Amino acid sequence: MSVRHGLLALLSRGPRHGYQLRVEFEASTGATWPLNIGQVYTTLSRMERDGLVTPGESDEQGRVVYTITAAGLTEMARWFATPVVQSERPRDELVIKLAMAVAAREVDVAEVIRRQRTATMSALQQLTRAKRAAADGTDGVAQRLVLDSMIFQAEAEQRWLDHCEAVLKEER
User: What is the arrangement of strands in the sheet containing 64-68, beginning at the earlier edge strand?
Assistant: First the structure.
């Protein structure tokens, strides 16, 4: 996801200034994707240049309020209509790390897997606690979906690590 598309989605709910967008973006992503306020304003500036948003009057505190344009709504709809292709996602550093550990000399691959499993289990526990805390609060469905996705990814990583151990045992 690009910050640009996330901001367009938030602006589709109504005019917002940069700080509001930053706070709502972080809340919607369960604080898993922190934004620098400078990044928000740089992105808004580019979106203004591209005709996706228009700046309005400053509010009582001097902050410029932005509104999504028809072109911005079209771009947002295009983004939501386009599936994310697996090959477009970033490379998985853990997969590369384990592949290189197998290829390298004098690396205890089982120890690399053990350490990763411990870290992943710790992350899974933290995510589960965060999900429980979010369920008690009013942060909403968006945060729950983000946390659920992260929990599922951590569980999948644990299963993959199990698979890696089994493959290594077969190769011995």
Answer: 16-17, 64-68, 53-58
Q: How far apart are CA 58 and CA 116, in angstroms?
A: 49
13, 31 contact by CB (below 8 A): no
Say what the pTM is. Answer: 0.69
* Per-residue pLDDT reduced to its tens digit, 114-143: 999 999 999 999 999 988 887 766 557 888
pLDDT of residue 88: 57
Cβ neighbours around 125 below 10 Å, total:
11
Torsion angle in degrees (nearest 10) through CA of 85, 32, 79, 7: -160
* SS3 per residue for 113-152: HHHHHHHHHHHHHHHHHHHHHHHHCCCCHHHHHHHHHHHH
Residue 74 CA to residue 24 CA, distance in Å, equals: 21
